[in-house]
Structures are given as C-alpha cells and as structure tokens.
Design brief:
- The complex is a heterodimer of chains A (706) and B (168).
- Chain A has 22 helices and 22 strands.
- Chain A has 706 residues and is an alpha+beta fold.
- Chain A folds into five domains: 133 residues, Up-down Bundle (Four Helix Bundle (Hemerythrin (Met), subunit A)), CATH 1.20.120; 114 residues, 2-Layer Sandwich (Alpha-Beta Plaits); 57 residues; 180 residues, Heat Shock Protein 90 (2-Layer Sandwich), CATH 3.30.565.10; 146 residues, OB fold (Dihydrolipoamide Acetyltransferase, E2P), CATH 2.40.50.
- Chain A has a six-stranded mixed beta sheet with strand order 14-18-19-17-16-15. Chain A has a five-stranded mixed beta sheet with strand order 6-8-9-11-10. Chain A has a five-stranded mixed beta sheet with strand order 20-12-13-22-21.
- With 168 residues, chain B is of the alpha+beta class.
- Chain B is 22% helix and 41% strand.
- A six-stranded mixed beta sheet of chain B has the order 8-1-2-11-10-9. In chain B, strands 3-6-7-5-4 form a five-stranded mixed beta sheet.
- Classes of the chains: A alpha+beta (706), B alpha+beta (168).
- At the A-B interface, helix 11, strand 21 and strand 22 of A face strand 4, strand 5 and strand 7 of B.
Amino acid sequence: MTDLDQFRQTYITECLELLDEMEERLLALNVDAPDNEELNAIFRCAHSIKGGSGAFGFDFITNFTHALEALLDSLREGKVLPTREVVDVLLKATDIVAQMVDAASDGGRPQDNFGAEIKALLEKFANGADAPCVPVAAEPIEASEGERQWRIDFTPHQTLFSTGNEPLLILRELGRLGAMEVSAVTSRVPPIDGLDATACFIGWSLRLRTAAPLSAIREAFEFVEDYCDLKIIDTQAAGSPSPPHWGERGWGEGGCGESKQTFNFPPHPAPLPPRGGRGSPNDLGGTKNLPKKGESSVAEVQAARVGQTTSIRVDLEKVDRLVNMVGELVITEAMLHAQTRGFAVEKFAGLLRGIDELAQHTRELQEAVMSVRMQPVKSVFARMPRIVRDIAEQLGKNIRLEMEGENTEVDKTVIEQLADPLTHMIRNSCDHGIEMPEERGDRGKPAQGVIVLSAYHRGGRIMIEVRDDGAGIDRARVLAKAREKGLVPAEVAPSDEEIDNIVFMAGFSTAEQVTNVSGRGVGMDVVKRNIESLGGTVRVTNEPGRGSVFTVSLPLTLAILDGMIVRVGAEHYIIPITNILETLRPKADEVRHVEGHSDVINVRGEFVSVIYLHRTFNIQDAERDPSKALVVLVESNRHKIGLVVDELIGQQQVVIKSLEANADPVKGVSGATILGDGRVSLILEVNELDQIGEGKSENLSRELAA
Amino acid sequence: MADNFDKTRAIDKAEAEQKARQFLTFTVDHEEYGVDIMTVREIKGWTETTRLPNAPEFMRGVMNLRGLIIPIFDMRTRLHLGMTEATAKHVVIILAVGERNIGILVDAVSDILDVSADQIKPAPTVDTQVDAGFISGLISLESRMVVLLAVEHLFDMQHIEKAIAEAA
C-alpha cells in the first residue's frame, strides 16, 4: 500500500463527511431567507471536495463538482435564488457526487454520462435566466472519441404552439447533451400579409455533437413527436458529413453560410467505443489507464490489510470516551486523595500506599491515553508534494516544496483539521505567490520557486509556516480590489499589515479568472475560519517582491488546555494560558477613564483597554477597583486587553468539555471543565470577551498617544 | 416477518397509549407537577452549581454529572414563584429533552402516576400567565390536581421569548 493510496482513502472519508454536511446544511437551508453564512459553508464543502479530487486525479468528480460549485457561487452572490427546485437539484448533485466518490473508493470510475442530467441542470440554474439559451459554437466543433455527430431536422407543424409546446425548451434540452449548432429554417415563412402569428412556420436544423445515445435525443422531442417532422441522422455513421439534401431547406439563408464552413470534420477513424469505456467529453487525456490503476491499488490495499498488524484504526469517538473516563478517574482519584489526607499513616498504611499508587497509575494512564491521539504532522504534510506538483504543472510554474519538522507531534483532532487549511495555503502560495518562471527571471530570481513548509513547537502550541519566495502580496492591487468589492470603504486608509490581512476576508480574490486551482475568494477565508475554530491564529508576513510567510499557530491538542484559574467575586473562571501575556496590579493613577470607551490602563507606555469581568458577567461582590484587584493582560485578535479579576488561584491543565452539548452557548465562554473538586468551571473565550467589551484598544492607543 | 413485527409493535404502542402513561410527579411550593416518566434519566440530590454569566434567572447554572456538563433550571423561578433556597434536601431531576440533558430543581419528588389517556384533561385555554405553553395537560385525582409539564417548552428560550413578545 503506497502512501498515496492511504491519502486517497482519507480523502474519500473526508468527502463523505463533507457531503453529509452539505446535505444537512442544504436541508436546513431556509428557502425564503437564505443565510449567507450557510451558503458560504455549503460552498466551502463543495470547494473542498473539488480541491481534493483534482489532487487525486478523480477528474470526473472535479468536472461535476465544478458545475456544482458554480451554481453555489451564484447562490452566494445572490445571482440565483435558492428556490426549492435549486435546492432539490443541489441535493441530487450531492447524491451524484457521493456515488462518484463511492466508485472512486473502489478504484473505478462511473459511467461516462453519469450525472450528466443533473450537471446540465446545475449549469442551467447557475447561468440563470439571462444566459444564452442555446450555445452557438463559434469555433469549429471537434469531435472527440465516444461522441457522435447528429444532424437533426426539426420541422414543427404549424399547430405546434397551440399544443403549448415551446421549441426553445427543446433546443435548450438538446444543448445540454453536447456542443450544438442551430440554424433556423425560415423557408416556410409566408409573406407578411399571410402570416398567422399563432402558427409556427420556422423549422430548425441542428448539428449536435454528443456522447448521448439516440434515445436521449429522441427524449427531448418526446412531447412534440406528433406535432412535427423530425429527422435525426447520424452523420458519421452515414459517412456523409454533408448530406445532399442539406441545402434544400433554405440552409443557406440568413447567414448560415459561415457555420457551414465550421463543419469540416476530419474523418473519424475510430469506431465508436463501447459505453462506459471512456472519459467524459471534457477530459480524455491521461485517464485511460485510471481504472487499471485503481484495480491494482485495491488489490494492494487488501494485501496490506492482511499483512498489517502493528497498528489499528480506532474510531475517534471511542478514544474520546476513553479520554472522558480517564478524566473522571483523575477527579475521583484526587477526591480520594483529599479525603484521606488526614489519615494516620500507621493506621491506614495499606490504604494510603494504595492511593499513592493509584495516583501514579492514573497519571500514567492519562498520559498514555492522550498520547494515543498524538500523531506526527507527517501524515498531512506528505499530501502536499503531490498537490504542489500538480498545481505547478497546471499553471506552468516551476515549484519546489521543502518540508521541515514533519515529525512534530500534534493531537489527532488537530491533524484532521489541518489538512484543509494547509492545502488551501499551499495552493494559494503556488497560485498567487510564486511567479511564472520568466517573471522570476526578470526579477533576478532563480526560475524555480521554493515553498518551505515547516512545523515546530513553540510554547505549548504547534506552529506551521508556509513560506514562499514569490511575489508577496501586491498591496496596491489588493487594496484596489478590496475597494472595488466593497470590502474596504473608500475613505479608510488601512495600514500595510491590515492590507496584508485582507486576503483572509470572505469574498476576496485577486485572481483574474476563476481557475481550477484557486480564485473564488474562498481559500484563505476557509483557512482563517478553520484555524480560528480550532483556537488558533493565522497571520501573514509580507515582503512585496520577495515573498510571504503564512504562519499558523495551533494548540497541540483540542482536548486539554493549560489554564489559569482566576476568581471574580465568588466565581472561578479559567483563562487559557496561551492567551495570557502577564498579570499586573496597576497603580491608581495608571487607570484612566476615557469618555465613550472602556477604561484603559497604562502598561509601560502602552494603553490597554480594560474589561471588568464582574461587569461583563454581572457578578456581585467583586473587586471593582483595578488598582486593588489584578489585571490579567491577554492577547486577543492581535491586540491586548486587560481582564480585571480578584485573584489568581493557580495554573492547571484542564480537560475541555462542551457546554453546548446540553446548554445554550454563552458569549465569552468557550467551554467548561471539571476541576479537581468535581465542580464545573467555565473557560473564557478571550476573543469574544473583547467583543463584549466596548473599547477597541488599537484606535484608543492611537488617540491617546496623539 | 418484519411486517408482522411492525404491526405487533404498532398495536402494542397504540394499546399502551390507550391504557396508561406514567408520570413522575414532584412538588414545587406545595403544588404538584408531573413529567412523562420516559423523559426522566435520573434523580439526585442538590449540589452547588456553577453559575453561567448573563443566563436567565431561572437558570441555576451547570453541574457535573459524571463528566457531562448539565444545565440546571429552577422550577420555582420558572413558575414565577421566586427562587428556591436550595439545600441538600432539594431534588434535581435529570431529564432528556430532545438531544439534550437538563436538570430541574424541585422541592421533592412525590409519586409515580399511572394515568389513562382519558384522564388527562387539556390545559386551560384561558391563560392568566404569560407563557402557559409549557402546560401539556391536567390530571385531577380525588383530592389532587397535577399539572403536566411539556418539558420541551419549559426552557426553550425561543419559545419563552415568543410568549413574552406576544404578551407585550
């Protein structure tokens, strides 16, 4: 079993998860008042599926999800309304993708036209009503393998309209089957005085190139069969690209001469391949050997399964339960320990020794259980070279990926969450960072661009860096684009750092055209969201012309947190240590009240706004005067705030428990934990506290400094 | 096979509904209330809770139930009868409401009632209270009256807010 197969498997699992999520969100979508956040989330699911499919060469998934994504994009931008029909189609599309993924997981591929109907619908909705109803090919249509040329003469009877049929719909339907040229045959139209407006005098001549069978074409005419003269001719089979009676019906009229020229097809050498034997029309190169490849990989997987006994796959839920129970055991042990503290050693020697041993064992057990979840980041990193290679090839760039610190260990949950943002970041660096080789040459850089992906531990967190030696962020262009998109109001002049961070805003993209790689303005937005939802941060350091560095900082585990227990009045709270910069007791004259803002304190010349926890949380009997209480200086969203607390109780590692599983979320609280005495304590979410607190210290410092 | 099984089960269910439902009854301020026994997970004595900041008044905070964090609601406050001065003698009933587990603080657990469907009277439509939507019915026995509570509506903030808005 090669590494790639392993990742393919991971991708498939992820896809199924994403599809589930998509379906769930689609089902929950309020059709009357769609939530933009929801639409964004759905879009991101589709985007992630597409992203991975490209990397693993599942072109059929890429093709299909591209259409899906396009429709979702239109929804997001409000061009298309998520009506019931649209949602229905989207749901059907998720089913199709699921089946494609299923097929891919078995190493095969679906039939050629699998999902074509739904894809057509997706495209139809995505284009909205104002799109051209019939694609008119300007370029000569080239036939690919597996496709046939059809000539269709569609001459409706004059009574067609009275039966409620609309020829346009039929033409559109046909247009979905493949590339089509349409000419109107107007020879039957009488002089104007003899014209009956309710009768149909126009006929159509169509040339259709499609892989769809005859029955599919016939189906389009299903409702009008009795009201028209229909000729469907397989021009290739007939061996006559230009049948003699072609011109008889006024084909030459009305500028159709031009399109006649476009019909010089090279004679088709190959006989029609059997159904299901080939790729979809858009993609023929290099997929021929895929099924074979897939088969062998399945065989390899099975062979590996027999041989592999050194490790097992365990459902994460089981590990979580284990972690939960060990947590409870630790509490019980602490309780026993506290209960027996006063016991005389002579009297209860055995009991006390037992309890001491219990303490040791539980601690070791806890460590062991936690280490089960730790894995080297290698498993995510190893996916990246392939991604870089593919993108470089696609974009015609020369990129080398260097990796450092692959053995840095991090919790399983973090690893799983890392894959998506990391892929997006790497793609972003390839697409927007590294320049084309010629451009690099002009700038005096080596033709080969370098992306360095590194991981290391720092202060109880894992840092992941994506560094490239590319063009960096073009601040002028980014700002112009952001203004154009209305993300930055014209009157605001952001700082360099602020401009750099615009790349993380939803809906921002500087790519000139929507590419397969990136450029829908979703990538870096996803990165930021994913990282922040994990309690991490992502920043960018930018040197225009010389490259940029994206740095992600993440907690090592999502299950345990180093916390400082603080007291406010009678309540105890936990502040994540990673947020804390320092603790101080300001002198009375260092606290200033600013009108219209929260209070600020002067910390060695820097003004920091203060949040009174007792006020925010409405707690009685707490110390109100910061100069008598303590101020815990924390960092939130790139700036500092001071939290006023009564007392620091101590530092402790706590197991994070979800509050939201049973209760409603509380603003400013990220979760809860159970302390040694079995009581629940709340973990503060510093970033949210900041939003509850009124002042923005950044602006404030500027004002005060001025 | 499967068909038969489903049928028997359906019949059983219907019969059970016809026959009897069981309610756990408890007292708050000398009044008796009942909840469907199927929602009751466990009954335990009161222990101190951890207050949640800016929570509604009837929310007493959260407690640790073998590693799970469970919110505890004060029934007395919810019924607009003031706040329970909780002691170790007070009782917390842990209920499963939808996906969630919650605890309600009551004075004492009194009884388990077997009631047939026709004994349950609908809730009075003339409501003097702002949000009487959480009363699902009444049972009157010889000398007692038991108010049946629709737990799912009791502490559903949306429901409460709506009721308040309607009253206003």
